[in-house]
Amino acid sequence: MITVQHLQKSYGHGPSAVRALDDVSIEVPEGEVFGVVGRSGAGKSTLLRTVNLLERPDSGSVSVAGTELTSLNGSALRAARRQVGMVFQHFNLLANRSVQQNVEFALEAARVPRGQRAGRASEMLDLVGLADRGRAYPAQLSGGQKQRVGIARALAARPKVLLSDEATSALDPETTESILDLIARLNRELHLTVLLITHEMDVVKRICASAALMEHGRIVEQGRLVELLRTPGSALAGQLFPLAAPGPGDGPTVIDITFAGGTADRPVIAQLAREHRLDVSILGAVVERIGGTQAGRTRLSLPVQGEAAAAVVADLRRQGLIVDWLRGGEAA
Amino acid sequence: MIDYDSPDFWSNLAEVLLKGTGETLYMVGVATVLTIVIGLPLGILLVGTEKGAFLERALGPVWVARTVNRVLGFVVNVGRSVPFIILMIALIPFTRWLIGTFVGTTASIVPLTIIAIPFFARMVEIAVNDVAPGLYETADALGATRWQLVRRVLLSESMPAILLGVSTTITSIINFSAMVGVVGGGGLGNVAITYGFQRYSWIHIVFVVIILFAIVQLVQLVLSRIAVRVSHRGGADGRRARTGTSRTRTSRTALTPSEGAAP
């Protein structure tokens, strides 16, 4: 649905130039929720803005639903942009217009005939759960409600794609959850393709099927979450399940076991104790649902080292578990 | 000297003041309408044609916008720096060409409008500059045209500040309108000059002052009420509209990411 290829974008000239995008390519399949994560300044925001050409890339191509956007200008570009809805971190609502009028503005921009705007706007407000707030003004709404209006406005012209620019970053955790639930529901019900950027891993865990990690304008890792979790040494998987670094008293051998999909419910630790006669200690563990499957990571300290530890790890890997060495073995 | 004991004194006074007030309201009213009609688009054009602003490419190649911006900015600055009494004299040939004469109430509207337009255009510029940068991006993302951006976003968002600008502009047109009395422009200024200054009637001056004060207060009251009504921002912004102070120009460095990062 969204294909971005070899994007380059720098700001400024000469030695002071900043590379915001450096050969960035992503592919978002229809109906998927795709998350781009990274620190601020990594280029996420620039990437998102090139998808509806709020930012023009220096080179590379962007196509949405088969339309190549980078070649468009003027009214053709405006028409193409209506196929792409966008929500913003700070909502960007018109303060002096009512909620209803804010949504109607999107319809006016989309050239929906005057007579149909009111009905369509109400329908959108109903969809986001604000049916009774049409006459309110943005200042009278909570942050979560404002973002709902932002979503209603973004989807009013029935776009195929929704771009989300840190849509939940200005919201408290509970509100964040309800907005993410809403986006997930719209993704299912409207078969909406969503490209979101965030610096919160929780957002990715909650609603994304795929993700990309950006650093210094480059994509360093991307793929389906389930597969990323199965990839040894994956930086994204590490960030999705952050565990405290092992301390000096945690023994000579520390390993991380990542479970994804079918391996999640296996009694690994009991098995280690039984078959290898090892008293393993659990240093940390996280288990969550990611991309619709149970996934997690457990950090274990083993009371053995050298070849004995290597044998245990080899055995675990034979069972399809992903094992990363933190101390001893391959980490040394 | 005025004969205060004359039986006709009060009715004469009333007549003079009524005529003067009528003329002032006529001059100020017409000049205000013309100022808004010309100054509002001018102010928007001034903001829009700035480097990287929303009309930069709307007028054709970028140099067109750049030139328009320079010329308008220059004209506005000249207009704002020339004292009114000098501008009025300098405009005599133009006024005569336009109206047929340079004396009288109708002719006075010409210099009043011309002094007020740059003043008001600057206020519109300040008001529009205050619109949150994210809204330009939002309008673009929605595929809005430049006209829709101006009409639905910029004017709507800056309307409270523009209304306060109208109020300030009317006050200064009233201020200038007193000076056209010098060239026989009529109005309350004329009353003050002919009766108060030339014939030493303090009572005329007192009434002129009271009437002008009342007009200015009424204009400010009504316009700031309307400004509060159209402002739904709440919080600090709403209070600002209520107290009748317009906001100072804020930095525009973060208009859009591309402009923010450009050196």
Detailed description of the structure:
- The complex is a heterodimer of chains A (332) and B (263).
- Chain A has 332 residues and is α/β, with parallel strands linked by helices.
- In chain A, 33% of the residues lie in helices and 29% in strands.
- Chain A has helices at residues 44-51, 74-81, 99-109, 114-127, 143-155, 173-189, 201-207, 225-230, 235-240, 268-275, 307-318; strands at residues 2-11, 18-28, 33-37, 59-64, 67-68, 84-87, 161-165, 193-198, 210-215, 218-224, 253-260, 281-290, 293-302, 322-327.
- In chain A, strands 6-7-8-3-9-10 form a six-stranded mixed β-sheet, sandwiched between helices.
- In chain A, helix 3 runs parallel beside helix 5 and helix 4 (114-127) crosses helix 5 (143-155).
- With 263 residues, chain B is mainly α.
- Chain B has one domain (9-245): MetI-like (MetI-like fold).
- Chain B is 74% helix and 0% strand.
- Chain B contains eleven helices and no strands.
- Chain B has helices spanning 9-48, 62-81, 84-90, 92-99, 105-129, 133-141, 146-177, 187-197, 202-230, 235-243, 257-261.
- Chain B is elongated.
- The A-B interface holds A 11-13, 16, 18, 20, 45-46, 49, 52, 54-56, 77-82, 84-86, 88, 90, 92, 94-98, 105-106, 108-110, 137-140, 153-154, 157, 163 and B 132, 134-135, 137-145, 148, 152-153, 156-157, 159-160, 230-235, 237-238, 256-258, 261-263.
- Could you tell me the mean pLDDT of chain B? 85
| Number of helices, where a helix is a run of at least 4 consecutive DSSP H or I residues of chain A | 11
Amount of helix of chain A: 25-40%
> How many domains, in number, for the residues of chain B?
1
Number of strands of chain A: 14
Counted beta strands of chain B: 0
Radius of gyration of chain A: 23 Å
Portion in beta strands of chain B: under 5%
What is the CATH topology assignment of chain B? MetI-like fold
Assign the CATH class of chain B: Mainly Alpha
What do we call the CATH topology of the largest domain in chain A? Rossmann fold
Sequence of secondary-structure elements of chain A: EEEHEEHEHHHEHEHEEHHEHEEHE
The CATH class of the largest domain in chain A:
Alpha Beta
Q: Quickly give the CATH architecture of the largest domain in chain A.
A: 3-Layer(aba) Sandwich
CATH architecture of chain B: Orthogonal Bundle
**Which bin fits the share of residues in helices of chain B?**
over 70%
Query: Any idea what the radius of gyration of chain B is?
Result: 22 Å
